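Hi again,

Forgot to attach this to my earlier email, sorry! This is the prediction with 3-hydroxy-3-carboxy-adipic acid bound. I've pasted everything inline since the attachment limit keeps bouncing my files.
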Amino acid sequence: KNKLVQWGPAEVKSALLEKYPPKVGRKRAKQIMINEALQNETPELTANVRTIPGIITMRGCTYAGCKGVIMGPTRDIVNLVHGPIGCSFYAWLTRRNQTDAGPTGENYMNYCFSTDMQEQDIIFGGEKKLAQAIQEAYDLFHPKSIAVFATCPVGLIGDDIHTVSKNMKEKFGDCNVYAFSCEGYKGVSQSAGHHIANNQVFRHLVGQNDEVKPGKYKINLLGEYNIGGDGFEIDRIFKKCGITCISTFSGNSTYDQFASSHTADLNAVMCHRSINYVADMMETKYGIPWVKVNFIGAKATAKSLRKIAEYFGEKELIDTVEKVIAEEMPGVEAALAEITPRTENKTVMMFVGGSRAHHYKELFDELKMKTISAGYEFGHEDDYEGRQVLPNIKLDADSRNIEELEVEPDETRFKPRKSDKEMKALDKAGYKFKQYDGLAADMDKGTLIIDDLNQYEAEKLVELMKPDLFCAGIKEKYSIQKLGVPMKQLHSYDSGGPYAGFLGAVNFYQEIDRLVNSKVWGYMKAPWQKNPQLSGSFAWE
Ligand code: CFM
Ligand code: HCA
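Structure tokens for the complex follow:
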């Protein structure tokens, strides 16, 4: 029943490219890689480049990466979108980031703030309207902070959102107002939005409150967004271990947590793709080191806790962490013993964002499922390769990373696995590295790694390799299910979660068991499968 025997990776690759015009095919070929186990054999991959116009990409825009991803999960900052109403409405609570403000805490997540730009604002300029909207939000809520986000038309007409924000901040005196030039078209994907958000968060929020918070073993958790309540499960584990989490960037976060984050001793980075810029800038300015962690997968959770304990090096913490792992693992093992006989050797494909395709492989490994193809929507070289070369960061007087933003990255081809020899040479040349694994290092030989997969290729892949499960986002969900293959959303978790930590892992095992072993998919037949005459009338066949 090994499907790879019928369709080897090379055949699948050529079948995916077959229908493209030659130029498009050549470009796409560089983003599809057959993974090799031997380091020196590793072929090259291209990532973080512009999607070819006409292709229906899975990616989102720069505004989504800044407003939706990084700032969206903050609960007591008024996130005000300067733009047409749709940009605000469609980025409002669609990401399933949860929050718990308690009975008295401020929470503006339930509101959708927008300047509701009209034609008239495009023609005569929208700055006055923006100032008015900031004033209105201030008068209504008296928040500690208001963040302004630019959408595409704002950049096109040239509204100066930074000056408007600065003037309003001075006018109020007790409310920090700042803006993000995160127009949707600014980059090739969400990724540019992360970078823009990181720079402004570092410039306007981090370091604003020097008050030392109580607690031992102080860390910040970077790149955890509390999707489906993941952050709540991680908080539960931290509390049990006696680790103090000063701030989370940015799941269930508050203004004050960002403002005090520089008082932590260590940054634990979960989603490296979206937040590495803050981690690097905090290391440069405040000397706070960072380590890569992953709380997706029970074993990965245990490993990450040990890594944090090892950093502090104190027996008390090391012992408590071991005690917590010993308490939590039996539940995980019992669930696995029951479920794995039904999930073993089932196949899965994952095409998600910039870190989950890699993180979730841990959970599928625990279920003994095989990841036969995976990739990112907007990952960079580091996310495929792991071991990151540390940038030489220089901060300007405003504490802003002056490294140019990668607005339109050049086509870079890289080997997702460097040999030890290559690493030694780089080391000798004076490069500094952070050691962690990337997606390619964890994938088996012969599997397909595909960057920026698109709608057409997704359907083709499923048709050729018939996985038992396909994981991606909402845009892919129904087209895949119509092919009779179960589909699990790894962005919004459909309506499930949490999947992080120990309890989350068990939750995930149970859901995947139900999905891959449900008989319902076998009964699904599209009208043209039931009635072959119909297929002739479809233009693509
Ligand atoms: Fe990081 Fe994310 Fe991801 Fe991401 Fe995203 Fe997300 Fe994602 Mo959707 S920050 S890169 S930009 S882990 S929103 S919580 S699920 S694509 S893999
Ligand atoms: C985004 C957010 C998204 C979209 C998910 C999806 C998320 O990129 O703007 O396509 O289902 O996680 O909500 O990545």
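The CA atoms of residues 65 and 190 lie 4 Å apart. The chain has 23 helices and 18 strands.

That should be everything now.

G.
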